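Recall the central idea of this unit: under ordinary conditions, the amino acid sequence of a chain determines the structure it adopts. In this exercise we apply that idea directly, starting from the sequence alone.
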Amino acid sequence: MPSDAQAAVAVRTEDLPVFCPNPAMPLWSSHPRVYLDVDASGQARCPYCGTRYRVEGGKRPGGH
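Accordingly, the structure predicted from this sequence is:
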């Protein structure tokens, strides 16, 4: 599990929607895929593994 000191996974707006596990994670660390809501604050944490995701540039203006 990543520590709070570890940097968040940066996600570009063109990569949305955000899901975990992400394609860069090794197969052995897999858990059920979960989509994360980053619209409200520009960041989210996976409830399974604790990986933090952050949208580059912060929250998206206007949602969709």
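Residues 1-5 have pLDDT under 50 and may be disordered.
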